User: Fold this.
Amino acid sequence: MVRPAVVVTADRVLRGAPNVIGVVPLTSTVRSSGAEVTIEPDERNGLSTLSSAQCQHVRSVAVARAGTRLGNVGPATLRQIRDVLAVIIDM
Assistant:
């Protein structure tokens, strides 16, 4: 199943052409959870519906499995996702 996700691997790692990247999957099921970040659709992120970044489901995927880039969530949303990830993994 193809599902949108936010890449959370650091730019400096991505420049090294890794074969695995970290992603946070998105869902259109929006819950009020401290482990999820709500993302409004806009032209920049390429989403067509209100979505939720499921930070509790962060995972590693092979770069070969990554599909086409839809867009960019922007620095504010990415910061929110990183902040939630830091809480989840107790950093």
Q: What stands out?
A: The beta strands are 5-7, 20-27, 36-39, 51-54, 59-62.
